[in-house]
Amino acid sequence: MTNESIVLFSDGGCSGNPGPGGWAYVLVRGAEKRSVNGGEVMTTNNRMELRAVISGLEAAKEMSAAEGSPPDVAVYTDSQYVKNGITAWITTWKRNGWRTASKEPVKNRELWTELDALASALKPSWHWVKGHAGNELNEECDRLTQEAIASLRA
């Protein structure tokens, strides 16, 4: 089997912030497409954005485990928090003992640590997409996120 590229779209959100939250990812590899969502009763938008991309990268890693080498993964997120956090801010946070520029502890550190480990292993490319702008897979993630939130309020 060839080591085909994987495209990962992710999204997260809340009804209230904090409040009931949902996350979703869509993973595409060749003709294979996988959509997964989940949620938490009391959380924040940022936690759900992180959970979505972490879950998607875990699935990408599992999907390619038998092939012996990490796949090429392209991650698409509408969250500047996730994209900037993993591509720019995290280096400074780690150097500063997981403190922000204002010396405050980094919020969601445990999720950032998870994401950092996955990103180090898979070395994905990171792409920001504008949310609610007609991108089919981003819109699918948003719909699945909203479904997850609705299921928590039912």
Describe this structure in words.
The chain is α/β, with parallel strands linked by helices and 154 residues long. It has a single domain (6-153), classed as Nucleotidyltransferase, domain 5 (2-Layer Sandwich). Helices cover 44% and strands 27% of the residues. The protein is built from four helices and five strands, in the order E-E-E-H-E-H-H-E-H. It has helices at residues 45-63, 80-95, 109-122, 136-153, and strands at residues 6-14, 19-29, 32-43, 73-77, 125-128. It has a five-stranded mixed beta sheet, with helices on both faces. A hairpin with a 2-residue loop joins strand 2 (19-29) and strand 3 (32-43). Helix 1 (45-63) runs parallel beside helix 3 (109-122). 38% of the residues are buried.
